Amino acid sequence: MVTHRSDEQPTLPRPPRGLFEVANWRVLELRSAGAYGSVFRAEPLHSPGAPPVALKLAVHPLDARFMREAALLRRVPPPHAPRLYDFGLWMHPAGPFPYLVMEWIDGVPLYAWAQGQQLSSRQVLRVLAPLARTLEAVHSVQAVHRDVKGDNTLVRKDGHPKLLDFGAGHFQGAPTLTREVLPPGTPGYRSPEALRFHWRHWSTLGARYVPGPGDDLYALGVTAYRLATGRYPPPLVPAEVLEQEPSTPTLASEPPEKWASVSPELAGLIHQLLSEEPQARGSAAQVAQQLEAAAETAGVRADEPVVQRLQGVPVVRRIRPKLSRPARAKRPWRGAAAGLAATLGLAAALVIHSLRDAEPWEHVWPPEEAARPEQEDGADAGVSLAKEVQSVSARMEQPQPSWEGLSGEKVTKPLPGQARPPCKQRGSVEIKGGCWGSPEAKPPCRDGEYEWEGLCYYPILAPAPPATSEQ
Questions:
Q1: Which of 94-98, 235-239, 381-385 comes out lowest in average pLDDT?
Q2: pLDDT tens digits for 226-260?
Q3: pLDDT for position 395
Q4: pLDDT band at residue 309, thresholds of 50, 70 and 90?
Q5: String of b and e for 104-123 (b: at least 16 CB within 10 Å)?
Q6: What is the 3-state secondary structure (H, E, C) of the chain?
Q7: What's the whole-number average pLDDT of the chain?
């Protein structure tokens, strides 16, 4: 996900710890923290000791991603997506911070779950099948998840996986909230068609890649490859790179069978999902049927343990394509005007109020009462929210600067619009004459973050100029 930040934009100084209240909910403990939100275990104030819920609190005030995520969760029917109980604005001295209250999923992240046991190919097929069914439900409402990966999948005690974190998702009619060529997502899971679009249009002003169901299915293929082999598949590289360096790793030279003893059925489906052309991957419904059928009819090899071959084999190299590129087109941009905050706050409050009036959270709590097959206005509410948020985000969007990846050999001066030393932001460091912040994460880095000496960094923007009436 894009992590451009500004010293002018207030954020929560750190995720709150200990007991505190957000609207009608008592927060019990912090469970995870990310670039845009923190997830807490919480309970309703009026029912202490009731089943817990997941409360997701924004890092940035009036973050429109939360409104879009709320609309998407209302469109995708349970059990494919976490049930949404409530959302609104938490008034804090630093500003109004959006929050979502969702169904609590008790489980272990997919990759960590796999490391704790010896899986067979049949078990991997059975774990992947429900994820494909979830994508089928998402795609059926003209939506895409855009961040399918093991880190966003929890495996419950009964072995059933749940795809979470719909914050990067998008659906037909929803507002676009970024100006990057590629939408939010995790770089290692980008589809070949997305990478090709980026290579061709990275310097084209206004170029935007529109992801489709094939992008989610490719990411599911990366997840399957990583689950079975313990490593990521080699990314697509341009033909000219292969001509210059024929030894560059490709899926053909690094198939899953090379790194793990997978059954033919599982290997074939991984190859299908990682096809360069989206049509060859099929639909989510077709993939789900194939996975379910393979799990039932696969031969005896599918019951053998998947043994990963990690010793005595060369490590896959990460290749940075060296392409001849035209001169970068100038991208005019400005920081967000301070006056937009009040307008956006009013509009966001109206949108939240309208959706809550359609279905108050009390009508779907506790979870036992919420387990109805369909809500009266679930799909329509998502569409109406998209229309109302679109006018808000149109005023909110500002063109963002676009930078190339950090490279010790090529970057010798600060990037355009980057803050210069002295670097005053807490935790910031100076690299090549510019100020960089580190989210304390290791590669693969998110969009907008760049790898430097084994860690991920994001460029800190210089303060935006004062707002004027002309802006």
A1: 381-385
A2: 999 999 999 888 877 888 888 888 898 899 999 99
A3: 32
A4: confident
A5: bbebbbbbebbeeeebbbbb
A6: CCCCEECCCCCCCCCCCCCEEECCEEEEEEEEECCCEEEEEEEECCCCCCCCEEEEEECCCCCHHHHHHHHHHHHCCCCCCCCEEEEEEEEECCEEEEEEEEECCCCEEHHHHHHCCCCEHHHHHHHHHHHHHHHHHHHHCCEECCCCCHHHEEECCCCCEEECCCCCCEECCCCCCCCCCCCCCCHHHCCHHHHHHHHHHCCCCCCCCCCCHHHHHHHHHHHHHHHHHCCCCCCCCCHHHHHHCCCCCCCCCCCHHHHECCCHHHHHHHHHHCCCCHHHHCCHHHHHHHHHHHHHHCCHHHHCECCECCCCCCCCCCCCCCCCCCCCCCCCCCCCCCCHHHHHHHHHHHHHHHHHHHCCHHHHCCHHHHCCCCCCCHHHHHHHHHHHHHHHHHHHCCCCCCCCCCCCCCCCCCCCCECCCCCCCCCEEEECCEEEECCCCCCCCCCCCEEECCEEEEEEECCCCCCCCCC
A7: 76
pLDDT of amino acid 430: 85
Backbone φ, ψ for residue 162 (5° rounding): -130, 125
Tokens 């590669």, located at residue: 443
Q: Residue 120 carries which side chain, given as an amino acid letter?
A: S
In whole angstroms, how far apart are CA 166 and each of 74, 76, 152, 232, 372?
11, 10, 9, 22, 21
* pLDDT of the residue at 338: 40
Q: What is the CATH number of domain 108-303?
A: 1.10.510.10
Question: In the chain, what is the straight-line distance between the N-terminal and C-terminal CA atoms, in Å?
Answer: 27
pLDDT given for residue 203 in this prediction = 81
Fold of 5-104+339-396: Phosphorylase Kinase; domain 1 (3.30.200)
Contact 421, 435 (CB under 8 A): yes
Of 172, 174, 135, 136, nearest in space to 152 by CA: 135
Percentage of the residues of the chain whose pLDDT score is greater than 90: 43
User: Is the CB of residue 401 less than 8 Å from the CB of residue 2?
Assistant: no
Q: What is the mean predicted confidence (pLDDT) over 353-359?
A: 40
**Residue 17 pLDDT level (bands cut at 50, 70, 90):** low
Find which of 44-48, 204-208, 270-274, 449-453 is predicted with most confidence, using mean pLDDT: 270-274
* Section 186-194 average pLDDT: 92
Q: Where are the domains of the chain?
A: 5-104+339-396, 108-303, 405-466
* pLDDT at residue 161 is higher than 90: yes
Instruction: Check whether the bond before 96 is cis (ω within 30° of 0).
Output: no
Nearest to 187 by CA among 252, 235, 230: 235
